[in-house]
Design a protein that fits this description.
Elements: H1 3-25, E1 39-40, E2 50-52, H2 54-57, H3 59-62, H4 66-76, E3 84-90, E4 94-99, H5 101-114, E5 128-132, H6 144-162, E6 166-173, H7 178-195, H8 209-222, H9 231-256, E7 263-266, H10 267-272, H11 275-285, E8 289-292, E9 295-298, E10 309-312, H12 321-334, E11 339-345, H13 351-361, E12 369-374, E13 377-381, E14 384-386, H14 398-404, H15 407-413, E15 423-426, H16 427-431, H17 438-458, H18 468-471, H19 477-487, H20 489-499, H21 503-522, H22 530-553
Parallel strand pairs: 5-6, 5-11, 6-7, 11-12, 13-15
Antiparallel strand pairs: 1-2, 2-4, 3-4, 8-9, 9-10, 13-14
């Protein structure tokens, strides 16, 4: 909700508590502590703009029927100064309240005053959050799941920031461990194949064209210098050549997708600093490990996990989970973030309890780590599942997707569903320029308003400041409905931040566009009544501000013409 809406709820709460106090003083309600009660926006606004269950939850304390309690409260309630002008008791004792004209005037005034900052709040002020997302292996191109994870993680970070949190975006680079060993093997064999016959690439190695290209480019610079070198030296040189190029490629591709990270955190730094070894030692010191078959195990079941797991193999090499524990310890303890949010594929559901168990054993409050689990994406064209790119015939990657689909559409579409829902991405719809395409529909509402302003200016009519009396002329149902929607942006952003679900805000802006088109079709902006025309123009521009603020927050363009 906007400041106007938020203040109204706060003022109403105080008015209800004061009325209960007066009813007690008059002997119409017995003396009793005020119970916790809610003030909510009803789904059906014909039942009021706000509704309270105060009489229902007070029945036990007051030993009275809820309706009798509601009558006592409303007898003494003062609504002056609350932006509300009437109430009614409904059903067994709900109290419904209705906004006065001053509420609608205040919403438009607030949007005009705040402009690009409208919708932002200080809800999360003072809290530092680290959002880690995508973190694709740097051994190959990003797949379609990374495209969803990128849009989701970046938009979630934007929502949290708008809700007042201090947010950092981070990419975790897996530049150590098994993936890099496999990368080295693949590069080494492709390099040796240039100079020797009969060398086969193992089935479990990387078979992509990118590995062949890296080996050829390496050979063009170094020739056969490394053919007879020690395998370890050759592998080290190949990885040192290819890995930075892959990491830079990931960064470039994500920048094209409008994602810029505050930090690219390398796993290798955790090994070099001794942080990985330190985690094992800490768990040992606290008595949370045991040895079995030469390996070091973590007593994970003592901390809520379904089974114990190996930290260090019998050959002395840590398992993949140890650097991950060290990384999260670094986030929450060393760097002191209040909250770490990981955007992960749904296949990681068993991995999160392991991390939380280890953090708990290390004395860290595991509730400070949250995971957003994201389901798979299916690409659809002509109603059929698509696995390969039209152009290349190969699997669709983030890059090939953005060659087929506008970035605006990709970012909008990937935030149409809550993260934990399966999603069919309609490639045909994403490029369609019609009201059936949701991002086009929202952008068209913005462009339409720009066109209204431009058309009026060409007729010699420019927007001017409206008086409260002029804004109070906005009484048509379509006008009221639209202003109510504009008033709820801040609340939607806060709820989205609480639930880690940017799709709420995507739906919000789509619904705002729908209500604007409905208003535009029902209420003529340009008319003979100059005061009403200016009030409607103010509503148009306020709607434009709200749509632009949401699109900008999600790094989607807000075109002035289409």
């Amino acid at each position: 909700m906007s400041d106007t809406a938020g203040n109204t709820v706060s003022l109403l709460r105080n008015a209800i508590i004061d009325a209960m106090g007066r009813a007690m003083s008059a002997g119409e309600l017995p003396l009793a502590p005020t119970p916790n009660f809610t003030i909510e926006t009803p789904a059906d606004r014909t039942n009021g703009d706000l509704a309270s269950n105060v009489a229902m939850v007070s029945a036990r304390a007051f030993k009275k029927a809820p309706r009798a309690i509601a009558e006592a409260i409303t007898k003494y309630i003062e609504l002056e100064g609350t932006n509300l002008d009437r109430f009614e008791i409904a059903g067994p004792g709900f109290i419904n309240f209705f906004y006065g004209k001053q509420f609608y005037t205040s919403v438009i005034r607030e949007i005009e005053e705040k402009g690009a900052d409208y919708g932002k709040s200080d809800f999360g002020q003072g809290k530092r959050i680290l959002v880690e997302f995508v973190s694709a292996n740097p051994t190959g191109p990003m797949h379609i799941g990374n495209a969803r994870g990128g849009a989701l993680g970046d938009s979630l970070a934007s929502v949290l920031s708008a809700a007042g949190y201090d947010v950092s975006r981070e990419f975790y680079v897996n530049d150590a461990g098994n993936q890099i060993e496999k990368f080295a093997t693949s590069l080494e064999i492709r390099y040796l194949q240039i100079y020797k016959d009969g060398i086969e690439l193992p089935e479990d190695a990387y078979h992509g064209q990118d590995i062949i290209d890296h080996a050829k480019n390496f050979a063009e610079i170094n020739g056969d210098k490394y053919v007879n070198a020690e395998s370890s030296e050759r592998r080290k040189a190949l990885v040192a050549f290819a890995l930075p190029k892959n990491i830079q490629g990931l960064e470039n591709d994500l920048l094209k997708y409008r994602i810029k990270y505050d930090r690219w955190f390398r796993e290798s730094t955790l090994h070099q600093s001794g942080a990985v070894k330190n985690i094992v030692e800490l768990l040992k010191e606290k008595g949370h490990t045991y040895e079995q078959d030469g390996a070091i195990w973590f007593k994970a079941t003592e901390f809520g996990a379904d089974k114990d797991f190996v930290l260090v193999r019998s050959n002395g090499i840590p398992t993949y989970v140890v650097p991950d524990i060290a990384y999260h310890y670094d986030k929450l303890v060393t760097r002191g973030f209040d909250k770490a949010i990981d955007v992960l594929g749904a296949d990681h559901h068993g991995y999160v309890p392991r991390l939380k168990a280890a953090l708990t054993a290390l004395g860290v409050d595991a509730s400070r780590l949250d995971a957003v689990l994201m389901q798979m994406v299916r690409l659809v064209r002509n109603g059929e599942i698509v696995k390969a790119s039209k152009r290349s015939g190969k699997a669709i990657t983030l890059v090939t997707l953005l060659e087929e689909v506008p970035i605006d559409a990709a970012r909008f579409f990937f935030n149409l569903r809550e993260p934990n829902s399966h999603f069919d991405f309609d490639l045909d719809l994403a490029i369609e320029q019609s009201s059936q395409n949701p991002v086009y529909y929202v952008q068209y509402a913005h462009a339409r308003i720009c066109n209204i302003v431009k058309g009026l200016a060409e007729s010699g009519i420019t927007q001017r400041a409206c008086t409260d009396e002029e804004l109070a002329l906005l009484t048509a149902p379509e006008e009221i409905e639209l202003i109510n929607k504009l008033a709820s942006l801040t609340g939607e952003i806060i709820t989205s931040a609480k639930t880690y679900d940017p799709a709420r805000v995507t739906h919000y802006v789509y619904e705002t566009a729908t209500l604007f088109h409905k208003f535009y079709n029902a209420c003529r902006v340009k008319g003979e009544d100059e005061s009403l025309m200016q009030a409607r123009l103010a509503l148009c521009v306020a709607t434009k501000t709200v749509i632009e603020n949401v699109l900008t927050m999600f790094k989607i363009t807000a075109p002035e013409s289409m």
